[in-house]
Amino acid sequence: MPQLNPSPWFFIMLASWLTLSLIIQPKVLSFLSTNPPSNKTPQTTNTTPWTWPWT
């Protein structure tokens, strides 16, 4: 059964994981900007409780 032989599959998994983490991930993270912290105060909304007709 070839799926029990880890020889080719382990190398493919290791190579793809290293490629993703060392090459692709830093390039993608440089394009994505994170949300900077803002100095705005959070707005609170006034909510009215729901009046149920059967209570």
From TrEMBL:
The keyword Transferase does not apply. GO terms for cellular component: mitochondrial membrane; proton-transporting ATP synthase complex. InterPro entries: ATP8_metazoa, ATPase_protein_8. It is a single-pass membrane protein. The keyword Transmembrane helix applies. Pfam families: ATP-synt_8. Its main location: mitochondrion. GO terms for biological process: proton motive force-driven ATP synthesis. Keywords: ATP synthesis, CF(0), Hydrogen ion transport, Ion transport, Membrane, Mitochondrion, Transmembrane, Transmembrane helix, Transport. The chain crosses the membrane at residues 6-24. Belongs to the ATPase protein 8 family. This is ATP synthase complex subunit 8. It comes from Tichodroma muraria.
